[in-house]
Amino acid sequence: MVNEEKVEEGLTLKDIFQIIKKHIIVILICVIGFSALGYVYSKVKAPTYQANATVLVQYEGGDPNTAITTEYSYSKYISDTLVVFIKEEIVLQKVVDKARAAGYYADSELEDHQIMKSIASRISVSNEALILSISFVKSCSSSFVIFILGPTI
What's the whole-model pTM score? Predict the structure, then answer.
């Protein structure tokens, strides 16, 4: 009988280390090059921060005999009103007042109506099936975005 040796196909761990050792210069150049590109990109590209909120609008009448269609109609009316109300001057003025009190816009020469217009242009609101989706996008510090959406909505 002939001794049959099992021939293993593939690479062993020793083969892999030899390949890495053979090409270590190319690997290091690629790692350093891509790291440098990532660093430059992070310094050049202005960060964009986005805050989202989702609100379910539901009317619950005190009367248990109220029809579901009536409650839905009231909920729809309330959600349509909220879509408009979120960008109203009275709401945005409170945001600006809180921002100024917290030190934001302290060195800014912008007037309140200019700041409100800037904030309103970055807020988007959609209303689908009594669910309001509110989004705020700004290229600035993350604490400002959290401040704007957090205490107001």
Answer: 0.49
Tokens, residue 52: 């989202």
Residue type, 22: K
116 vs 120: CA distance, rounded Å: 6
Residue in 79, 102, 78, 80 with CA at minimum distance from that of residue 152: 102
For the packed helices 142-149 and 89-101, what is the interaxial angle rounded to 10 degrees?
Answer: 130
How far apart CA 94 and CA 100 sit, in angstroms, is 10
Q: What is the pLDDT of residues 122-134, one digit of tens each?
A: 888 887 777 878 7
> Given strand 123-128, what is the order of strands in its sheet?
49-56, 131-138, 123-128
Q: Kindly state the tokens that stand for 66.
A: 């109220």
